Fold:
Amino acid sequence: MNNVQLRQVGKVYAGGVEAVRAISIDIPDGKFCVLVGPSGCGKSTLLRMVAGLETISSGEIVIGDRRVNDLDPSERDIAMVFQNYALYPHMSVYDNMAYGLRNRRTPKAEIEERVQEAARILEIGHLLDRKPRALSGGQRQRVAMGRAIVRKPRVFLFDEPLSNLDAKLRIQMRVEIKKLQRALGITSIYVTHDQLEAMTLADILVVMNKGKVEQMGPPLTLYERPATTFVAGFIGAPPMNLVPLPEGGLPGLKLAKVPGSGRLTLGIRPEHFELTAPGTGPHALDIDVTVSAIEAVGSETFLYCAVGGNGPEIIVRVAGKSEIEAGATLRAVAEAKNLHFFDDETGVRIAD
Ligand SMILES: Nc1ncnc2c1ncn2[C@@H]1O[C@H](COP(=O)(O)OP(=O)(O)OP(=O)(O)O)[C@@H](O)[C@H]1O
Ligand SMILES: [Mg+2]
Structure:
């Protein structure tokens, strides 16, 4: 079993920077775990601790049934794919892929077999004699993947492997990585700050903030029931609308029911609004809005709206094209099941 367990893992760098704070994650054998969060939240540090490239300040990392804290990277049976691919420029694609196996004194025939097999899977068989400088970005990325695959590791580690590629290639490689990981069934940990990449790749999505886990679970669970305003604002594009409700209410906004008594932030996703004519209702949520800007992207349209005419801005998503024009006054309504409430001070979700 190649499950990965992080138990209360922490990292304090020399100089006192607390990059990772008591993180515990359980990744079952063969699952794809994605770490996502803003720059500097500790994603790479955590991954590098699993790889053995960074010492562990506290806690335990277990791969399979082995505690790996004190093992060298080479003894951990992991393969890592980096953002910059780290290919050897003077070696051919074949030699780049074979390098790690030769170091381990793998028999020549087996190296040949594994490199050819990986090249076939990645469709780079025709590139084996080339040097990395004669490859496109996407091809280099494949070679870096190939180098990881030939090792047949227990665990794949990826640190933003697609961020050097253009948008279209990113999406293509994202799908390929997912298929490949499924087919090979190798436990994987993948770091990104792209929430869409995180949502689409993950079996287990871990949202990190300031060295800690904000929330983890299946991607759609995080989408549907974010535990904090941080997660609500990070997952989804455009993100969830978060409207702080002042004491005494917000002009133009009416809620049928408000949970608890403290100061609240109301959360609602752009796709959960419906637009009606002013004066209709009442619904669980009624907001009188003035449309200030419109973004049409073909498949959908985003309306930027001011609550009550000049209050906070919310984004309303309309499927397909929209006839609505800037300056229009409308009523945006929503059902109770699509409303999220958070404690205004702590940002924590209020039980519902
Ligand atoms: N070698 C180091 N010495 C001291 N502090 C470090 C070191 N490496 C990283 N840090 C700090 O630790 C924190 C986490 O860094 P890390 O590289 O893990 O972030 P990240 O989530 O991967 O960010 P990014 O998305 O920008 O790659 C940051 O505050 C960073 O400045
Ligand atoms: Mg990083």
Notes: Helices lie at 43-51, 93-103, 108-122, 137-149, 167-184, 195-201, 219-224, 229-234. DSSP finds eight helices and 19 strands in the chain. The two ends are 38 Å apart (CA to CA).
